[in-house]
Amino acid sequence: MEQLLEITGTLVGLLYLWFEYRASIYLWIAGIIMPAIYIFVYYEAGLYADFGINIYYLGAALYGWMMWKYGTFLRKKLLRKEAAQPKELPITRMPLRYLLPLIAVFVVTLLGIAYILINFTDSNVPWLDSFTTALSIVGMWMLARKYVEQWWAWIAVDAVSTGLYIYKGLDFTAALYGLYTIIAIFGYFKWKKMMEISD
Question: Which chain regions cross the lipid bilayer (predicted)?
């Protein structure tokens, strides 16, 4: 049963990756289904931070859908500008003012999760599990805002996760994250090109 869930999660993950690469809003539908599956897979594998992050992903997927679908409309409303039709959020660069707060969120989250895993679980990979989880929280927020730099976070998360899942014997998931790493590199350049065309 666990392997069937892992294979299903991998297939949904491939769809997610394809939609993300194309900057399609449908990535958020896959983004709801995939974590619902992986909650069980990671718990059984003793990857407790990854288990927890998938609960976060469920909520983040709903936030991401709303931001991508209505983000431009909401921004115009807040700025009291004319906004007759909701327009999908464009791909942009992340403002530099977010860099230090995001680094702070990453460091605090990394240390907090590592402390919990070391002291309250039987995890044998607390630091790697904490690293991928903390950086995923930052990456998800950047993705929801449609910042092109979100790909750099995912390249790091995916590369580290590939090794982590090989170590944990989650072979299908490791293969998926290996593919994620490669596609994330191409995704960065794809989004960058799409952003330049829309400017």
Answer: 25-43, 55-74, 95-118, 174-191
pTM of the prediction?
Answer: 0.82
- Listed by start position, the domains of the chain span 1-85, 90-198
d(CA 111, CA 8): 32
Distance CA 166, CA 117 (A): 20
Residue 49 has pLDDT above 90, yes or no: no
Q: How far is CA 141 from CA 61, 68, 107, in A?
A: 10, 12, 15
Cβ atoms of 10 and 172 within 8 Å: the answer is yes
pLDDT of amino acid 46: 85
- 20 closest CA partner among 133, 189, 196, 184: 184
Give the number of other CB atoms < 10 A from CB of residue 144.
22
Q: Provide the b/e sequence for 11-21 (b: ≥16 CB within 10 Å).
A: ebbbbbbebbb
Task: Quote the CA–CA distance of 49 and 157 in Å, as a whole number.
Answer: 13
Top mean-pLDDT range of 55-64, 68-77, 104-113, 190-199:
104-113
